[in-house]
C-alpha cells in the first residue's frame, strides 16, 4: 500500500510522469471545509493508506496551518507527517510529484517523509521578474530596487538551493542564448516552466541551454506565485531530477536510522513525522556517482 501524499492546494499537484504515479489528496482550507468533514476525510485516508505525508508551503495562511495541527491532535495520531516547506510554489509542486513517485517504491513512510528535506536540495527553483521592489525572498540591494523602476529591466532570481540575483537587460539578453545566467545544477535535470504574464524567452532560450537541461516542460503558474514573488509579471521555473530510478538511488544511498522519539524509520538528521532531530547526529552522504551529469 503506497504512502498517501497530501497537499493544501490543487495547483501543487502536477500531472503524473507515468501511469503508476499516484495523485495527491487535497487538504482544504478552513473556509472551504468544516472541521468535522476534514477529520472524517483524514481518518478515511489513514485507515486506507496507513500513513499520510502532508506537504504545505510556509506561506499558507496561519488558519490553514493551524487546521492541520488540530486534525493531527484531535485524531491523536503519529501517522500523519506535516512537512512545512519554504520553497516557491512551483518548486513545492515538483517536490510533491517526486514524493508521489517515491510513495509507491519499497520505502517506509518515514523514509518518504524525511526524503523531502534531502530532495529539496536538488531542486533549483527561481523566477524571471520584471521588478524586485516587493521581493523579500533574497537579499536585494538598494541599487537593484532602483533599477526595478527602469523600463526593460528584468531580474533572474534563484532562491533554492542558494539565493542568487542577477540583472538582465532587455533586448538580446532576453531573446536568445547568451547574456548573464544564474548558477545551475551540476547534474542532469529537466526544467519545468510556469508561464506568467511576462513576455520573455530568457528562461527557455538562455537559462535552459546554460543549465544543459535534458528537456523543458511548461506548466500552469500556481495561483500563489505572484504573491510569493511580489509581482504578477514573472516566469517561474524549477530544475529537478526527473528519473525515478535516480531518485530511488539517491534516497536509498542514505543511511537509515530509527527516530529515538517515535520509532519511525528516517534518513537525514530529522524525523519526518515528529520532527525530532537525530541523536547523536549521524547522516551519511549519498553514494558516489548517483548524480553524475548525463545519468539516466
Give an account of the 3D structure.
- By secondary structure, the protein is an alpha/beta fold.
- The chain has two domains: 104 residues; 117 residues, 2-Layer Sandwich (Hypothetical Protein Tm841, Chain: A,domain 3).
- 30% of the residues lie in helices and 20% in strands.
- The chain has nine helices and twelve strands.
- A six-stranded mixed β-sheet has the order 7-6-5-10-8-9, sandwiched between helices. Strands 2-1-3-4 form a four-stranded parallel β-sheet, with helices on both faces.
- Helix 3 packs antiparallel against helix 4.
Summarize the helices and strands and which ones pair or pack.
Layout: E1 4-7, E2 25-26, H1 35-49, E3 52-57, H2 62-75, E4 80-85, H3 89-102, H4 109-120, E5 124-129, H5 142-147, E6 154-160, E7 164-168, H6 172-175, E8 190-195, H7 202-211, E9 216-220, H8 225-229, E10 234-240, H9 244-252, E11 256-258, E12 265-267
Parallel strand pairs: 1-2, 1-3, 3-4, 8-9
Antiparallel strand pairs: 5-6, 5-10, 6-7, 8-10, 11-12
